[in-house]
Write a structure and sequence with these properties.
By secondary structure, the chain is of the alpha/beta class. It is built from five helices and five strands.
Length: about 150
């Protein structure tokens, strides 16, 4: 799998699209996505919601490869939960506390999603991530996700 870069930010959003926008802007500022990425993610979220009713509720918006310059994940730790529609039932909402915005330009995308799903299912790791300072989060995310890879 090509190298993955991890970013973490904290912030406040009034809506799911605003939360996606915060992540997309960070990824753009760091040079991992183009202007197009943000609207790609928002449009995809409208059609295919990504809210997951995990122990610590999360969403993982992403888009097709267009608009992605290089592989990265930006995690947003929200100061107040934001409603995202559920992936498995879009009539239901979850209060996402964290948003993982995926910028993936190659076929590693399914494997990354699997590792993230494994992480999201792990209550201890998710609480650990949620309680970690934002400066330490990229390193911790990378460790947890790479751990998942070695287990394959």
């Amino acid at each position: 799998m090509s190298q993955m870069k991890y970013f973490a930010i904290e912030g406040h959003a009034k809506s799911d699209f605003e939360a996606i926008s915060l992540c997309a802007q960070k990824l753009k500022k760091e040079g991992y996505v183009t202007d197009q990425f943000e609207s790609n993610c928002i449009n995809r979220e409208k059609q295919y919601p990504t809210g997951l009713p995990t122990v610590v509720p999360v969403a993982m918006p992403h888009s097709e490869a267009s608009g992605v310059i290089d592989n990265a994940i930006c995690m947003l730790k929200l100061d107040q939960p934001v409603d995202f529609r559920r992936m498995d039932d879009e009539t239901q909402l979850i209060n996402a506390k964290m948003v993982f915005n995926l910028a993936l330009k190659d076929t590693s995308h399914m494997s990354v999603l699997q590792h993230l799903m494994g992480l999201f299912a792990d209550t201890n790791k998710m609480e650990d991530i949620y309680n970690t300072d934002v400066e330490d989060l990229p390193r911790k995310l990378e460790a947890y996700i790479n751990q998942g890879e070695q287990a394959d």
